[in-house]
Amino acid sequence: MNHIAQSWKALLVTAALTLPSVAFAAEPATMKDGMMVDHKGMTVYTFDKDTGGKSMCNADCAKMWPPMMAPAGAKAEGEWTIIKRDDGMMQWAYDGKPMYTYKMDMKPGDKNGEGYKDMWHMPKH
């Protein structure tokens, strides 16, 4: 087999092993140590003012409470849905509630946003 054919075969094998994991994306957040965290291990929160699957946290609020943005092509699955924000971007929601992280959580495991102004809460999974 010549070098080009070997390279092509290696590329096809790599693609075959990689594509199934792309097709079945993981949930946007998981439970760890009794709290829901994103893929970076940062605690996620819901906002009491969000109703009807709509985010009420925009502009300055979204700077302090970054929305969990859904990438292009993301698909709803189980309790996870995708909502359209006022700016047209897509955000993950769990059980109908838009999900956020908190800027003041500096490292995985921090939960400084829990109970903030009695409006921000860690979701129960």
UniProtKB/TrEMBL annotation:
Gene Ontology BP terms: alkane catabolic process
Domain of life: Bacteria
Signal peptide: 1-25
Keyword match Zinc: no
Coiled coil: none
Entries under InterPro entries matching the protein: Lipoprotein_repeat, UCP029720
Keywords on record: Signal
PANTHER family given in the database record: BLL4220 PROTEIN
Protein name per its UniProtKB record: Lipoprotein
